[in-house]
Amino acid sequence: MNLATTGYMNANTHRSTIFLEDAEILEQQRFPGEQYVLRLKAPECAARALPGNFIHLTCDATLPMRRPMSIMRVSRHEGWVECLYKVVGEGSRLLAQRQRGDLVSSLGPIGQPFVLHPDRPRPLLIGGGVGIPPMIFLVDVLRQDARVKWKPLVLMGSEVPFPFKTRPSTILLPGMPDGAIGCMPLMEDWDIPSRLASQQGYPGCYDGYVTDLARRWLESLDKKALVEVAILACGPTPMLKAAAHLAQEFGVPSQVSLEEFMACAVGGCAGCTVEVRTPDGPAMKRVCVDGPVFDGTSVFPRN
């Protein structure tokens, strides 16, 4: 079943596709700002993961509670999954100490993914901090989808150094402010335009919020181009709220991937519920299995 064309699965059905694996650490790359890219041998997860899914990892034998990690890239053929995480507490600190060859218990893939709509072939992907990984995964899927001529733009924001070495973009992008020329090299290698935003004065970055940069680009579009746009975002809650409100202001649809503390991550404990507007009125939804991707307007309506 292709979620890009059929929509969301029922949460109960989705739980039957979550796999428990002893995942081998293939690589841990450390980046400034206590950020790590973790590559795991997890073939069951890799075979089924979609952009917006996450995995739930046991960071260390001394910690019974798992930690959710967004999936950044997968290789279905080689059976690996990559995640980006930042050390913020005891669990991630212990995970950062794990070495190549170590095994970590993995549950995944979990959650509802982003849904692609061919009638909106110009997706604007907005990633903030550790919300960047799903955007990379999504672009990887888009560039391999021959059904539609996708024209994505990736905007990334961070207040710590980006977990990659930035460089000036060689892809011309109308609507970008002067000086906003920094890009992610991987996107450039894929011939996908990307731009960076930060308030830390990093070279080539737009000086401001990533959603402000998104506004500048949206304002440059004519009506014909705007009807092809959809906003897909992942990052901290204030950024997601700003992205959803921006989408409503410009009359384009949006999807947001929520960040939330989780315990079981499979829908049993209901500890990660958020209020969502539905046609039948407000309802409490579980971020882990009803999300993490939701319609932006349903979570962040403009009053």
Give the SSE layout.
Elements: H1 3-6, H2 11-15, E1 19-31, E2 35-41, H3 43-48, E3 54-57, E4 67-75, E5 80-86, H4 90-96, E6 103-110, E7 122-128, H5 132-143, E8 153-157, E9 167-168, E10 182-183, H6 185-189, E11 194-198, E12 206-207, H7 210-219, H8 223-226, E13 229-234, H9 237-250, E14 254-257, E15 273-278, E16 281-286, E17 293-295, H10 296-299
Parallel strand pairs: 7-8, 7-13, 8-11, 11-12, 13-14
Antiparallel strand pairs: 1-2, 1-6, 2-5, 3-4, 3-6, 4-5, 9-10, 14-17, 15-16
Helix pairs in contact: 7-9
What Rg do the Cα atoms give?
Answer: 18 Å
Largest sheet: 7 strands, mixed
Strand order of the largest sheet: 12-11-8-7-13-14-17
Helix content: 10-25%
CATH topology of the largest domain: Rossmann fold
Shape: globular
User: Mean pLDDT across all residues, rounded?
Assistant: 92
The CATH top-level class label of the largest domain: Alpha Beta
> How far is the first residue's CA from the last residue's CA?
37 Å
User: What pattern of helices and strands is seen along the backbone?
Assistant: HHEEHEEEHEEHEEEHEEHHEHEEEEH
Structural class determined from secondary elements: alpha/beta
Total number of strands: 17
Report what the structure shows.
- It is a single chain.
- With 303 residues, this protein is α/β, with parallel strands linked by helices.
- The chain folds into two domains: 108 residues, Beta Barrel (Elongation Factor Tu (Ef-tu), domain 3), CATH 2.40.30.10; 130 residues, Nucleotide-binding domain of ferredoxin-NADP reductase (FNR) module (Rossmann fold, 3-Layer(aba) Sandwich).
- 23% of the residues lie in helices and 32% in strands.
- It has a seven-stranded mixed β-sheet with strand order 12-11-8-7-13-14-17, sandwiched between helices. Strands 1-2-5-4-3-6 form a six-stranded antiparallel barrel. It has a two-stranded antiparallel ribbon with strand order 9-10.
- A hairpin with a 3-residue loop joins strand 1 and strand 2.
